[in-house]
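Study the following:
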Amino acid sequence: MGKTQLAIRLARDHKNDFTAITEEGKQAPPRGCEPVRPETPPPLIYPDGIKILHDCPDAAVDICFVHGLTGDRENTWTADGQSIPWPQALLPSKLDRARILTYGYDAYIVRKSVESSDRLIDHATNLLVDLALDRDLSKATSRPLIFVSHSLGGLVCKRAILLSRNNPEPHLQNIFDALKGVVFVGTPHKGAWMADWAKIPASALGFVKSSDVFLLDVLQRNNQLLESVQVDFLAMIRQLREEGRGLEVTCFFEELPILGAGMIVSKESATFEGYAARSIYANHRDMVKFSTAEDNGFKRILDDKSRIKNREAGILKDLDRWVLENGDYKRGYYDKGPRIQTLRGHSESLESLAWSTEGDRLASGSVNNTVRIWDPATGQCISTLDSQGTYNLEENINLAISIAWSPDGSRLASGSHNSNIKIWEPSTGRCLWTLKGHTSFVLSIAWSSDAKKLASGSDDNTIKIWELSTTAQRTLTLRGAQTLG
């Protein structure tokens, strides 16, 4: 009998053994011995989507947990020696009318196989869509909602909330309307946290085995957009506070360093000025892992969620009435002056607004690569200028942060984060020119009175004056103290 036939016979007789015959005729280790693992491990598979950890027929609030990068929707919240996450094991007995959810996504962004530069944005969109679907199926679209997020999962939450606010899809906007509070645990909000993390090998954080992989290499590809999310979220919660809608925000920071890595997120970076800040006596990884209800970290987070849950709903017998009343905030219930029109259609936060000279049109620029032209009298969107919409434009506007109408209203200029300026024909939605020359954000633009020249100011510390014609554009660059002579 040949070696090949012998191997086949042995395999049939011992299906569950690791027995095999090598080319040299040597036998592999018997069953019970650890087989030799391949050098390249199989791709990691993360459970994704919404999972209900605890259901409640008469729930008064939904609490949704969102893990951080390279985390897991259950393991992130499970202490060593425990078989189930603490939100499932400990919370139900403390919050008897809470439905407890956890959201999972493939957060292993440091894998070399992941090439997309907008994974965080995709995760936020999926969180919003999946949560809205779950609440719709559970007939809980108006139920008050609390987010609890760990580490950079807080950025995913922020982005999802911003996407929900003023969303043209009512079922997606319901998430923002129902939101009562956000608990950030070890989430970096400000400061040079990306630069600090660049110094820490990912292996020290327990993320990957390769010590030559650094988180910053991945995160820097999203740097501009991440900063925009941070700024827009802070502006949003401050605006809500001014309008009278008390969106509760609490930040928890770590007290202990991780061995070999130090403090991952400093107190300064993990907190918002003017909002509650509390410490947890643990390192960055363990600050969301509790074994018993006696853990101080659990008590502090529980107290915060209980406070948010009871702040409004606890004093009203009819929770539906509270949600309806809370919804009035978005309709201008607390406006100090008369409100003429509310324009809805952008799915993300706005960067700039500009009236046409005649006042019959309003242009709005958003971080989602679109400029919209509105009829203020009717509140209708006349046209949308973007590469994904009706019009076949050359390229994305890319975070339009400055827009200006020409004096005669026939053209619209937009400056963007990608250092380019576009000249549009609003009546057709056609992009006439793309002006390139700046090396950083175009922060402001202004037309000359005869509409023959356009001035642009940039984050690259220069002013450019563009002379426009149908055949060419001439440019004058002003630097420092240089003046027109």
Remarks:
- The mean pLDDT is 72.
- The chain has three domains: 1-36, 49-330, 350-479.
- The CA atoms of residues 115 and 362 lie 38 Å apart.
